Amino acid sequence: EVQLVESGGGLVQPGGSLRLSCAASGFTFSSYDMHWVRQATGKGLEWVSAIGTAGDTYYPGSVKGRFTISRENAKNSLYLQMNSLRAGDTAVYYCARALYYYDSRGGWYFDLWGRGTLVTVSS
Amino acid sequence: SYELTQPPSVSVSPGQTARITCSGDALPKQYAYWYQQKPGQAPVLVIYKDSERPSGIPERFSGSSSGTTVTLTISGVQAEDEADYYCQSADSSGTYRVVFGGGTKLTVL
Fold first, then answer.
1. Could you tell me how far CA B103 lies from the centroid of its own chain?
2. Which residue stretches of chain A are H helix?
């Protein structure tokens, strides 16, 4: 079965760290760009990070310097190391498989999502 | 920053047509994508490249583009279509590589 399964969420104090994992199965993990997207309770989707098949990484300004995305193709796994966590980072974190159109209007989009893992930053 | 603007809510009766818009300055230069999200579930891609429908998505879902606005149309709305819908795109400079709209709650009356 083609699926993504996140793990590693939990309660962490402000300023603390947490490492999320995403296990992929049913497809050739190494052939896809992979992303993390988060969603605070009752709020919209927010892009968190991306990693290409060659290991190139991308972040929005809100997490750059605090979060690190990585992958281990031999284990079909994606990771998100989150440091200096803030209350505003509280959200469900989704792992997502990305496709990219290489034409003049192309960009990433997501054809497969995990069910998410909840991260709560609170004292 | 780059923003995609959606109406917070749209309401329709069963069998009617629902139209959800998404506006952004870069949409003439970047494709738009649409996701459906039901409570407690992960998002599901329903439209890609402005108007293409993935396999398994009902034909009543369609997408269109005109200038700086893209539209998700759901024809013959069914109760099961009640969900949040998000558009997604990017800015044309490459600075904001993935941007989501704020989401639209579709209510089936």
1. 8
2. none
Q: Which residue has the tokens 């993504």?
A: A4
Write the CB contacts of B22 (distance below 8 Å, at least 6 apart in sequence).
Answer: B4, B5, B6, B32, B34, B69, B70, B71, B72, B87, B89, B101
Measured torsion, CA atoms of residues B89, B91, B94, B97, in degrees rounded to the nearest 10: -30
Chain B nearest-CA distance from A123, in A, is: 26
Please indicate whether, in this complex, the C-beta atoms of A47 and B33 are within 8 angstroms of each other. no
Q: Rounded to an integer, what distance in angstroms lies between the CA atom of residue A78 and that of residue B107?
A: 36
Q: What is the pLDDT tens value at each position of chain B, 109 positions in all?
A: 899 999 999 999 999 999 999 999 999 999 999 999 999 999 999 999 999 999 999 999 999 999 999 999 999 999 999 999 999 999 878 777 899 999 999 999 9
Q: How far apart are CA A25 and CA A37, in angstroms?
A: 19
**Largest alpha-carbon pair distance within chain A?**
47
Q: What CA–CA distances, in Å, run from B30 to A90, B15, B34?
A: 30, 32, 13
Bridge pairing between strands B18-23 and B9-12: unpaired
Instruction: List, for residues A19-58, the tens digit of each pLDDT value.
Output: 999 999 999 999 999 999 999 999 999 999 999 999 999 9
Report the amino acid identity of residue A100. Y
Q: Under an 8 A CB cutoff, do A101 and B33 touch?
A: no
